[in-house]
């Protein structure tokens, strides 16, 4: 993608590329799940990765976050190569994520779940915890404050002391987002955040994602099958199929790409069904 | 959203039981003191005296007395009453009874030791969810650390090296140091090299770790040799006042062994970890049995010294303790202090970022890692912390027994500590202490007394209660677990998870096999520490 | 009537409970004999049996309980040296005298505790006796040494080895094993090294299994052991394999007893009370209890027929001259070892135990 | 020591290790079966297998005088032991594990330990009433005779094996054959039948297998029955091979067998067998390291003798698991994130 | 086919269903919609016997099945695609399908149905021997649906079948639903977030809110209902 094609975000300070991926490949046994994919994510943008089931999207995320080791390729976050880092190191470097299959800490309440997300940013260590030093108290307060802030941010403030597993599905997804945000990421990767949400809840989610970018200044990259969400939210879309990138571009470009229509969207999808939304509520108006 | 349960339950109003608590405490204390004091017993009508002297009755009285501490902790009562009962029981009545009957003190110390062990294992198993079946090894490390130096054994070691190859000391020491530095450096580089562990890196890591261990051993050996060259034997070990230093050294030693054992194996999951720790626990014991030069092998080490504090002894003397009781009396208070510190440390760690990280990796390693929790490091901290509690108590154990041999550190002991933790309530500090107390009292007071009480009856040997300890203990274990699967005093977390505070009409209790059984969420959400971090939900490969 | 108690410590549960119960039962018989005599003096005599599960820690806990019960004046026990050592140490500060019917390890008395005595010979007599038998009667030029990795077994073999080395006998192998069932590796090694004889320091339940497998693999050389083999179970377990097996023992076989008729009476009483035949450790439990009671009586007498203190009993025990025992008179030297102990060499052949020879052991010190 | 003596020696060591390994393997299968469905280390399995050994002992004892063919006696003993141990295992599951299905997984582990303790005493008491503690197998004549060996006169296969330095007794051959047969049967059952598939499904997700129309409780009971029956077989084999059992004999072999199951990859049937064999051989090799050290003139190996057998095996386990964290044949537990 | 009468279900003390009354007529498609945590999943679980109602009854073909274990209910001709797919992770795709047919004895029938599943979802055929647990989210969803069809159920419970599926497959799924219902007369109880789609294929619908039936009736009426549009269809 050329710099010229990149949408102007109107935020001068926030220009440039935050994540740059080159030739990322993952081979499972004989199966090439992700094949030589390049991707650049502009700072403070909302971008999406879409593609048919089994296209390799989740695997792509897993490689970025260090859960899988790429078979080849590089991942650069603000110039630092992330390949080979452990997941916790990737998080410390500034990438947080949510999971396609929700993975919350079952025995913790919402607040604690989010506090865990703060782990890598807290200064207090083992000795501080034992001796209850000033640094410890500061850290704990920070963790708690950030957790509450994030819970409020995603709208779960009232469930602060509720066990995570007792929350309804959609709220659990939001809780995962709050937990990811608590790591103070530069970039957050959301894997199908709208799955299991009804259209109304998806609308709320949409504005939440915009606020993540606008209010927190965090770059968002998401995987989604909900085309209304993707088309209205993303500034840039990459399409994978059978592990390879088959298209990329602005939403309307992708939507009208015949390859994408055939492999992914299905008949008649492009014409307008998803399009009308975008014209109505494009460009972060809800923020 | 009304179905969502409120975050906190309104406190159930229970009657204040301060008065009951105090009355019970007074009764049980009186009973205890009377039953232990022969002078008082003599004044009682002989039937009553004989009754109180019956081993089983005496043991029950003691148990009843100790139960007061539990009541003081559990009951709703005013703080001063709780403190009064707790304080007097621990600091006055118990030592007093111990003066008349040292086995009370012995039991109390033993409970303290096991409570500390349980607290340590609780961190590893209950909080971090790592099933460790070889935990007693760290206890052994602590015990031998002091045992060797606090007895004539160190003299023997030095003499051995003096007689053999003492003049190689400098060479060995320098060699060890060099190896140590080289391997430590290479370990660091290996760790720095980014990238998941390839087999080559694995080998390199293993070799370097091995080198590190050998380096440490050589260095230590070299130092011993150097010392030995000039030593003239230490028939009674080093000055017993080094005891204090060795409390610290034992922590360090046990923690290091914890890290050493942990490094190669903590990547393993669930039961793989369990069996490896079991094996490594045995390795430590067998080494103790085989490395006779240092440990005196199967013969064991004895006598082992213990610190003595002059003013404390005179205090003990002043309140009627005989000199042979000083050490127990002294160790009792040392144990109290250590336990207090350990509890404090435990609570502080539990309620800190580390504690949260432990629980996070217990619940979901992948998610925890993705949230920035370094897996191996966090597990190592759990291992080392747990180990250090065992290490320090090992020193106390050696000083109390005056004798240690590999037989005290067998696998069964590890299992026993584990049962204390689970019985008391995984992850619950008061729970595991209670678990330790219950199991210890059963094992060294109640069950044996059953045999002693019936010793004079003519019962066929096959069904003689004295021989049925396993049966009785086993039945108690099974029964307690069936009736209180969440443990005696479950942790708040556990209670929340198991809906312990449910209304009685709840049809999803574990006993209700059909409803409970077929309830996926029950199966899925109950956290499964230890054996495998993977719960049913993950196996399903789907959302929770 | 003042209550006066003695205690026994021995394994009453677990794998060695068979031997441990014998000690307790034997002691009970002795106590029964003395109840009347104590009654006359105004004492209500009884025995309390404590279980040590053959485990040092449990044994020590039992010892602490005994120390705490001031009506207990002395202890008969234990079976295992590994338990006796810490248990006696735990009893020492309270001056509770101990008389051991079975512990042979040198360390038991070598620590110089005032309260620890034993009526059996020590391993530094048993070891050389075994060694002499190996080189003398068995004419072995090379011996394979095995032990069970316990304080007793390993300690005993150390003594045997010392004696063998002094005679320039070849040691074909020397190792320990905790294994209870599978001995294939060791047997292969024995087959390879072809020793003239094997010495195994350990207990019958392990050695019986071993020797059976050994014979099945065609190794027929004699096997010698210590008092750990002194049980009829040895033949039950080893079957034909226990032929050509010899052992030194400190507990006397029936035919070697000085007081045969008395022994018969005890044996009858034993089988009547416990439904089993008395064996070596039953006899020694009986004898040890008798020594203990005579020591207590001596202390009572010294104290003007009043209840003696434990310290008095401790002192009396060292100087008592106990008579009327099945194994002859007992006197202790200054270390608590029996001045003139006997040792017996037994052979097992065709499933029968026969007394091969008797050895007198005199303690070197007084 | 020259090669000519060392080679047959090593063959002997390895072969006896393999026989030993077969016994471990069958015990290990009992652990693996139960572990497979409940993820529970069935600590009571050691007593389940001792029960089998005791039943086998009783059968051989009762039939000792009779004229019956030795192999028939063996068959009866095996069947009786399988039935007894299998039923016992079902009973244990019902009483001590099933009520705890939904409890944290360490809880049934503790009840398993409790049951194990109870059974030890129960077995001791039952045999104790007949005045027995150590139970020594009274084998039919011919079982203890050599099947093959250097100086055996055995015909055919035995002779051939003998010439290459393998010496085995008839009963050892029986052990191997019975073990192989049970392994084959079990492997077929679990991996190639509908029942086996159901067992694996229940193992992975009890609730969902209910949705497939599978009676999870029934399958679990069945698994305990099979696991127990294997325990019964292994008990008899244990008695055959080692000659003596008592109420407490289960503990050690139980631990080793479970280790074998882990080494092979817990849950995997061929894994348990491979693990058992590897452990058996390794244990034996470590037991003779001092001899090898002597032969190779490596003095330091001299200290490694039988007393290191057990822990040597554990150290090998550590090494293997470092490189193969799910055991030799364990499928790596792929987790889709 | 199926009737719920005053069903109350609890999780521990959480009262998730508060008296649900509903009827699923023979051969119909019934949609169940509602917001997050409304109790849709719980309703399906209660029907299939994964949960036992504390009060009320579930009646299938005239027989009260509340309290009967799930595996017996399934043997009566019901099939349930559970929330979260619940694929057997260590079984291959083919084995997952075979286990779906556990109650079917005829091997030929099983094979036919597997092939049928493969024609619905060719991806499954491609991955016949891949472990279920390593399939992608959407692939697992396909497998879960195919698995449920292995018994040719009389009553099919679908819990959010379109979740995680690409738009192409969402359409495919609804086609399959319609086809099953039309050709095989399979009765279907459908829980969907994609309410619009669900209501377009269903004949009747129930709207749940916090464990209670808030609305019920003709699907097309409900699709037009103001409050429903607002609450669930994201239209304001
Ligand atoms: N561990 C693995 N082993 C083998 N194949 C795998 C593994 N993990 C993923 N795959 C395969 O790789 C492909 C990509 O999977 P991935 O989960 O990345 O898809 P996805 O694009 O996220 O799909 P969906 O939209 O369905 O979630 C799939 O076909 C999947 O079956
Ligand atoms: N395992 C569980 N433990 C406790 N409460 C639960 C559990 N599962 C669901 N709940 C609660 O029961 C209520 C109903 O949940 P249910 O899953 O049936 O809703 P749903 O309509 O399927 O929602 P979603 O659209 O999120 O799937 C919710 O309040 C939820 O929080
Ligand atoms: C029973 C005997 C083997 C006891 C042995 N003599 C010991 O001292 O331990
Ligand atoms: Mg995906
Ligand atoms: Mg749902």
TrEMBL record, chain A:
The keyword Transcription regulation does not apply. PROSITE patterns: ABC_TRANSPORTER_2 (PS50893). Residues 19-267 form the ABC transporter domain. This is ABC transporter ATP-binding protein. Keywords: ATP-binding, Nucleotide-binding, Transport. The keyword ATP-binding applies. PANTHER family: AMINO ACID ABC TRANSPORTER ATP-BINDING PROTEIN, CONSERVED COMPONENT OF ABC TRANSPORTER FOR NATURAL AMINO ACIDS-RELATED. Pfam families: ABC_tran, BCA_ABC_TP_C. SUPFAM superfamilies: P-loop containing nucleoside triphosphate hydrolases (SSF52540). GO terms for molecular function: ATP binding.
UniProtKB/TrEMBL annotation, chain B:
PANTHER family: HIGH-AFFINITY BRANCHED-CHAIN AMINO ACID TRANSPORT PROTEIN BRAE, HIGH-AFFINITY BRANCHED-CHAIN AMINO ACID TRANSPORT SYSTEM PERMEASE. It is a multi-pass membrane protein. The chain crosses the membrane at residues 18-36, 56-73, 80-98, 104-125, 130-149, 169-191, 203-229, 241-263, 270-288, 300-321, 328-347, 380-399, 420-447, 467-489. Its main location: membrane. Keywords: Cell membrane, Membrane, Transmembrane, Transmembrane helix. Residues 499-544 are annotated as: Disordered. Residues 534-544 have a biased composition (Basic and acidic residues). This is Branched-chain amino acid ABC transporter permease. It comes from the Bacteria. It holds the Pfam family BPD_transp_2. It is found in: Cell membrane.
UniProtKB/TrEMBL annotation, chain D:
Its main location: membrane. InterPro entries: ABC_transp_permease, BCAA_transport_permease. Keywords: Amino-acid transport, Cell inner membrane, Cell membrane, Membrane, Transmembrane, Transmembrane helix, Transport. It is a multi-pass membrane protein. It is found in: Cell membrane. It comes from the Bacteria. The chain crosses the membrane at residues 6-31, 43-64, 70-92, 173-190, 219-243, 255-279, 285-304, 311-330. Belongs to the binding-protein-dependent transport system permease family. LivHM subfamily. This is Branched-chain amino acid ABC transporter permease.
From TrEMBL, chain E:
The keyword Ion transport does not apply. The keyword Endoplasmic reticulum does not apply. It comes from the Bacteria. Keywords: Amino-acid transport, ATP-binding, Nucleotide-binding, Transport. GO terms for molecular function: ATP binding. InterPro entries: AAA+_ATPase (IPR003593), ABC_branched_ATPase_LivF/BraG (IPR030660), ABC_transporter-like_ATP-bd (IPR003439), ABC_transporter-like_CS (IPR017871), BCAA_Transport_ATP-bd_LivF (IPR052156), P-loop_NTPase (IPR027417). Residues 2-235 form the ABC transporter domain. Pfam families: ABC_tran. PANTHER family: HIGH-AFFINITY BRANCHED-CHAIN AMINO ACID TRANSPORT ATP-BINDING PROTEIN LIVF. Belongs to the ABC transporter superfamily. This is ABC transporter ATP-binding protein.
């Amino acid at each position: 993608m050329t710099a010229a094609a990149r949408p102007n975000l109107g935020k001068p300070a926030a220009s440039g590329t935050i994540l740059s991926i080159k030739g990322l490949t993952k081979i499972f046994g004989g199966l090439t799940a992700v094949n030589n994919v390049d991707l650049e994510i502009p700072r403070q943008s909302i971008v999406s990765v879409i593609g048919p089931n089994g296209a390799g999207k989740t695997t792509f995320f897993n490689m970025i976050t260090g859960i899988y080791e790429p078979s080849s390729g590089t991942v650069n976050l603000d110039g630092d190569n992330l390949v080979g880092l452990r997941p916790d190191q990737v998080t410390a470097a500034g990438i947080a994520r949510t999971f396609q299959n929700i993975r919350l800490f079952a025995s913790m309440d919402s607040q604690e779940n989010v506090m865990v997300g703060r782990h890598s940013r807290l200064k207090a260590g083992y000795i501080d915890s034992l001796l209850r030093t000033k640094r410890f108290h500061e850290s704990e307060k920070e963790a708690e404050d950030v957790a509450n802030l994030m819970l409020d941010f995603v709208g779960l403030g009232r469930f602060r002391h509720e066990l995570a597993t007792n929350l309804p599905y959609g709220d659990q997804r939001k809780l995962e987002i709050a937990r990811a945000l608590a790591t103070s990421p530069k970039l957050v990767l959301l894997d199908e955040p709208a799955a299991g949400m009804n259209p109304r809840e998806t609308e709320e989610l949409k504005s939440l994602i915009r606020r993540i970018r606008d209010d927190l200044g965090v770059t968002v990259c998401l995987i989604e099958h909900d085309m209304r969400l993707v088309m209205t939210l993303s500034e840039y879309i990459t399409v994978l199929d059978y592990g390879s990138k088959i298209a990329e571009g602005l939403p309307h470009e992708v939507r009208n790409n015949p390859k994408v229509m055939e492999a992914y969207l299905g008949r008649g999808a492009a014409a307008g069904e998803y399009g009308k939304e975008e014209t109505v509520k494009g460009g972060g108006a809800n923020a | 959203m009304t179905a969502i349960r409120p975050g906190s339950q309104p406190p159930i109003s229970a009657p204040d039981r301060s008065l009951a608590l105090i009355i019970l405490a007074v009764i049980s204390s009186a009973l205890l003191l009377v039953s232990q004091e022969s002078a008082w017993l003599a004044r009682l009508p002989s039937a009553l005296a004989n009754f109180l002297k019956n081993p089983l009755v005496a043991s029950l009285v003691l148990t009843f007395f100790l139960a007061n501490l539990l009541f003081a902790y559990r009951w709703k009562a005013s703080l001063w009453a709780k403190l009064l009962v707790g304080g007097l029981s621990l600091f006055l009545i118990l030592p007093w009874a111990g003066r008349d009957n040292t086995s009370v003190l012995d039991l109390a110390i033993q409970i303290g030791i096991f409570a500390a062990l349980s607290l340590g294992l609780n961190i590893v198993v209950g909080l971090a969810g790592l099933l460790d079946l070889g935990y007693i090894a760290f206890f052994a490390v602590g015990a031998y650390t002091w045992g060797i130096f606090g007895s004539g054994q160190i003299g023997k070691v030095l003499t051995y090296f003096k007689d053999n190859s003492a003049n190689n000391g400098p060479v060995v020491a320098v060699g060890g140091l060099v190896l140590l530095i080289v391997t430590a450096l290479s370990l660091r580089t290996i760790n720095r090299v980014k990238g998941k562990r390839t087999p080559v890196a694995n080998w390199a890591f293993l070799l370097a770790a091995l080198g590190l261990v050998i380096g440490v051993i050589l260095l230590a050996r070299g130092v011993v040799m150097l010392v030995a060259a000039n030593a003239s034997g230490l028939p009674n070990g080093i000055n017993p006042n080094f005891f204090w230093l060795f409390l610290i050294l034992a922590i360090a030693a046990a923690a290091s062994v914890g890290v050493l054992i942990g490094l190669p194996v903590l990547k393993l999951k669930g039961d793989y970890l369990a069996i490896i720790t079991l094996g490594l626990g045995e390795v430590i014991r067998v080494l103790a049995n085989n490395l006779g030069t240092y440990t005196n092998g199967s013969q064991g080490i004895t006598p082992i010294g213990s610190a003595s504090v002059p003013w404390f002894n005179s205090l003990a003397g002043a309140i009627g303790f005989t000199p042979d009781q000083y050490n127990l009396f002294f160790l009792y208070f040392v144990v109290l202090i250590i336990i207090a510190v350990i509890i404090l440390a435990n609570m502080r760690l539990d309620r800190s970022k580390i504690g949260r990280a432990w629980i996070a990796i217990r619940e979901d390693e992948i998610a925890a890692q993705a949230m920035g929790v370094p897996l191996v490091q966090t597990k190592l901290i759990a291992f080392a912390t747990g180990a250090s509690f065992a290490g320090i108590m090992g020193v106390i154990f050696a000083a109390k027994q005056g004798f240690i041999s590999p037989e005290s550190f067998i696998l069964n002991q590890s299992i026993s500590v584990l049962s204390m933790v689970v019985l008391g309530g995984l992850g619950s500090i008061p729970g595991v202490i209670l678990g330790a107390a219950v199991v210890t009292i059963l094992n060294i007071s109640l069950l044996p007394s059953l045999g002693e009480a019936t010793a004079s009856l003519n019962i066929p040997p096959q069904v003689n209660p004295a021989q049925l300890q396993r049966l009785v203990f086993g039945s108690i274990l099974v029964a307690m677990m069936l009736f209180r699967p969440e443990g005696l005093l479950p942790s708040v977390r556990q209670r929340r998870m198991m809906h312990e505070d449910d209304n009685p009409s709840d049809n999803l209790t574990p006993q209700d096999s059909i409803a409970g059984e077929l309830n996926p969420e029950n199966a899925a959400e109950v956290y499964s520490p230890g054996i495998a971090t993977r719960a049913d939900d993950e196996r399903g490969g789907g959302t929770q | 009537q003042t209550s006066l108690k003695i205690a026994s410590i021995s394994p009453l549960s677990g794998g060695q409970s068979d031997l441990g119960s014998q000690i307790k039962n034997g002691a009970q018989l002795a106590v029964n004999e003395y109840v009347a005599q104590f009654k006359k003096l105004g004492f209500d005599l009884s025995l309390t049996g404590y279980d040590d599960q053959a485990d040092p820690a449990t044994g020590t806990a039992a010892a602490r309980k005994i120390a705490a019960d001031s009506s207990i004046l002395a202890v008969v026990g234990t079976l295992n040296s590994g338990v006796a050592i810490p248990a006696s140490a735990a009893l020492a500060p309270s001056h509770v005298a101990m008389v051991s019917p079975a512990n042979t390890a040198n360390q038991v008395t070598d620590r110089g505790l005032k309260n620890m005595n034993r009526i059996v010979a020590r391993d530094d007599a048993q070891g050389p006796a075994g060694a002499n038998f190996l080189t003398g009667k068995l004419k072995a030029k090379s011996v394979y040494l095995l032990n069970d990795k316990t304080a007793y077994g390993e300690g005993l073999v150390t003594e045997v080895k010392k004696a063998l080395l002094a005679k320039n006998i070849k040691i074909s192998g020397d190792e320990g094993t905790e294994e209870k069932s599978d001995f294939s590796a060791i047997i292969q090694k024995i087959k390879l090294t072809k020793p003239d004889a094997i010495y195994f320091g350990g207990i019958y339940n392990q050695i019986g299994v071993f020797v059976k497998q050994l014979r099945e693999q065609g190794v027929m050389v004699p096997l010698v052991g210590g008092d750990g083999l002194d049980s009829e179970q040895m033949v039950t377990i080893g079957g034909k394999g226990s032929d050509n097996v010899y052992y030194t023992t400190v507990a006397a076989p029936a035919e070697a007893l000085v007081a045969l008729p008395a022994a018969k009476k005890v044996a009858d009483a034993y089988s009547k009370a416990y439904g089993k035949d008395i064996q070596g450790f039953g006899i020694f439990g009986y004898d040890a209890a008798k020594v203990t009671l005579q020591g207590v009586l001596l202390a009572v007498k010294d104290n003007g027929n009043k209840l003696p203190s434990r310290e008095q009993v401790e002192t009396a025990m060292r100087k008592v001259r106990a008579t009327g025992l099945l194994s002859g008179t007992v006197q202790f030297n200054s270390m608590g070892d029996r001045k003139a102990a006997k040792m017996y060499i037994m052979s097992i052949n065709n499933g029968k135990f026969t007394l091969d020879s008797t050895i007198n052991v005199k303690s070197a010190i007084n | 020591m020259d090669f000519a003596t060392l080679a047959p020696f090593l063959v002997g060591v390895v072969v006896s290790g393999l026989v030993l390994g077969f016994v471990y393997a069958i015990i290990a299968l009992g652990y693996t079966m139960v572990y497979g469905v409940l993820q529970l280390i069935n600590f009571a399995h050691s007593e389940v297998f001792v029960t089998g050994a005791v039943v086998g002992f009783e059968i051989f004892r009762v039939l000792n005088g009779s004229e019956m063919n030795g192999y028939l006696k063996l068959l009866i003993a095996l069947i009786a032991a399988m039935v007894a141990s299998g039923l016992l295992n079902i009973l244990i599951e019902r009483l001590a594990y099933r009520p705890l299905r939904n409890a944290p997984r360490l809880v049934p582990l503790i009840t398993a330990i409790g049951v194990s303790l109870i059974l030890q005493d129960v077995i001791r008491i039952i045999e104790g009433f007949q005045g027995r503690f150590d139970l020594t197998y009274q084998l039919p004549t011919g079982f203890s005779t050599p099947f093959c060996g250097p100086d055996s006169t055995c015909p055919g296969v035995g002779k051939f094996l003998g010439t290459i330095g393998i010496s085995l007794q008839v009963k050892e051959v029986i052990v191997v054959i019975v073990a192989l047969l049970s392994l084959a049967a079990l492997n077929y059952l679990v991996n190639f039948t509908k029942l086996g598939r159901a067992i694996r499904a229940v193992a992975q997700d009890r609730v969902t297998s209910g949705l497939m129309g599978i009676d999870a409780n029934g399958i679990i009971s069945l698994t305990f029955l099979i696991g127990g029956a294997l325990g019964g077989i292994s008990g008899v084999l244990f008695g055959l091979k080692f000659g003596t059992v008592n109420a407490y004999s289960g503990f050690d072999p139980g631990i080793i067998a479970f280790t074998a199951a882990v080494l092979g990859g817990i849950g995997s049937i061929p894994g348990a067998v491979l693990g058992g064999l590897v452990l058996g051989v390794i244990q034996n090799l470590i037991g003779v390291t001092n001899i090898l050290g002597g032969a190779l003139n490596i003095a330091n190996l001299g200290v490694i003798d039988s007393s290191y057998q057990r822990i040597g095996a554990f150290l090998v386990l550590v090494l293997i698991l470092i490189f193969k964290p799910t055991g030799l044949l364990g499928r790596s537990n792929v987790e889709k994130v | 086919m199926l009737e719920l009468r005053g069903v109350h279900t609890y999780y521990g003390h959480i009262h998730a269903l508060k008296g649900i009354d509903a009827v699923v007529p023979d051969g119909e498609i019934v949609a169940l919609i509602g917001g997050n945590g409304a109790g849709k999943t719980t309703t399906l679980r209660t029907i299939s016997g994964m949960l036992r109602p504390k009060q009320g009854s579930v009646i299938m073909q005239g027989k009260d099945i509340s309290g009967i274990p799930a595996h017996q209910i399934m043997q009566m001709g019901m099939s349930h695609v559970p929330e979260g797919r619940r694929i057997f992770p260590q079984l291959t795709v083919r084995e997952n399908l075979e286990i779906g047919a556990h109650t079917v004895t005829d091997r030929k029938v099983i094979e036919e149905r597997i092939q049928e599943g493969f024609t619905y979802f060719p991806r499954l055929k491609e991955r016949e021997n891949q472990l279920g647990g390593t399939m992608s989210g959407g692939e697992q969803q396909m497998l879960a649906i195919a698995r449920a069809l292995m018994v040719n159920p009389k009553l099919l419970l679908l819990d959010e079948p379109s979740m995680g599926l690409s738009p192409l497959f969402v359409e495919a799924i609804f086609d399959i639903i319609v086809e099953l219902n039309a050709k095989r007369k399979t009765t279907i109880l459908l829980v969907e977030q994609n309410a619009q789609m669900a209501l377009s294929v269903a004949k009747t619908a129930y709207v749940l809110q916090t464990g209670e039936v808030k609305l019920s009736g003709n699907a097309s009426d409900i699709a037009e209902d103001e409050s429903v549009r607002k609450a669930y269809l994201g239209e304001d």
